[in-house]
Every structure is written in structure tokens, then in C-alpha cells.
Amino acid sequence: MIRVLALLALMSAIPVSAQSGVDWVAVDSVFVSRAPTPDRPDLPAEAFSVPIADPTMLFVPGDVVLPDPTPEGWSALIAFRDRHPAIARGLHERLDAAGYAFYRGLRLDRDSTDEVVIVAGASGATRIKVASVFPDDTVVREVLTGQITMVSYGEVSFEADDSGMLLIEVVQ
């Protein structure tokens, strides 16, 4: 089973300790972990460095399971990252105290900005306060499931899938 721990900006490096036989693997700048399997019980548990831009946006308690661990699933994440330069270079702001929901925003030019909200560890019907990011009546989409909704009273609501991850962008 592949677990997504981070999917975004990559600029510096911090040491990371693998826990009890977990092997951390980088896939096209998207960090995943693979649990030992019966045919690979020898996966190492050692410390090493991985490149990331902001440690506060990388790790969350528990694991976030990628809903589609195929090349097409990775393509969706990579396409989202490529569409939004704010992920790599934008301002990072937590939207909740636990740090599971955060905003990334970047002014592209005088009249336009790139803004996204990312939530990790969501389950079931999930409400996210986005008043500091998107004004009321803004139409937004959750990229992994294709759900579309409108910001109302500073919040959006999405049904999270098994991955627990929500990637929210403005519908153009």
C-alpha cells in the first residue's frame, strides 16, 4: 500500500528517520512510503534527508492513502502541482490549529493570484473554513474527486474519499 506523506514544493532538505522498517521513496518530487511486504521484509529503517520546502506542510499524524496508486493517480497530483505555482513558491498559512488544512497563495502578476487549499486526513463530509482565502460565492473544485461547490459563509464542504486528501482550487 502506498501512503502519500507530501506532494508539494521541494527546495531544501531535512533529516527524516524511517520508522520500524518503513522505506521512504521519492517519486517525481512526490514523497511516498511503502510498508514492508512479505517478499521485502528487508526494507531499511535508517535516517536520511528528503528535499522539502516547508516541514509544517509535510507530515501529518497517520497516513494519507493515495486513492489511485497508478501512474494516472500520480499524474493527477503532478498536474495539480504543475497548474499551481503557489504550491512550490507561495505563501503557506495553516487554516486549522492541527495543521491538516493549509492554504498556499502566490501573486502571479499585478492582477492575478494563484490560491489553493490542501487538506490531509479528512474523512466523510468535511467542512473547511476558507474565508481567509476565497470570498463567499466563489466556485471551487476538489481535484481528486471532481466535486464542485460554492463558498458559503466562509466555508466549503466536500465528501472526502479514502485518501483523506482534498486538493481545492478555484473553478476558472
Describe this protein's structure.
By secondary structure, the chain is mainly β. The chain has two domains: 57 residues, no CATH class; 98 residues, Immunoglobulin-like. It has two helices and 14 strands. The longest helix has 13 residues. It is globular and about 40 Å long. The N terminus is likely disordered.
Write the layout of secondary structure elements.
Blueprint: E1 2-6, E2 12-17, E3 23-27, E4 30-34, E5 47-52, E6 64-65, H1 71-83, H2 86-89, E7 91-94, E8 101-109, E9 112-119, E10 125-129, E11 139-142, E12 148-150, E13 155-159, E14 166-170
Antiparallel strand pairs: 1-4, 1-6, 2-5, 3-4, 7-8, 8-9, 9-14, 10-13, 11-12, 11-14
The total of beta strands comes to 14
Element-level helix/strand string: EEEEEEHHEEEEEEEE
- Total helical elements: 2
Oligomer: single chain
Low-confidence stretches: 1-37, 43-66
- CATH homologous superfamily assignment of the largest domain: Golgi alpha-mannosidase II
Please state the CA-atom Rg, rounded to the nearest Å: 16 Å
What's the rounded overall pLDDT mean?
Answer: 70
What would the keywords be for this entry?
four-stranded antiparallel beta sheet; mainly beta; Immunoglobulin-like; six-stranded antiparallel beta sheet; 2 domains; single chain; 172 residues; disordered N terminus; 14 strands
Question: In a few lines, what is going on in this structure?
Answer:
This protein is mainly beta and 172 residues long. It has helices at 71-83, 86-89; strands at 2-6, 12-17, 23-27, 30-34, 47-52, 64-65, 91-94, 101-109, 112-119, 125-129, 139-142, 148-150, 155-159, 166-170.
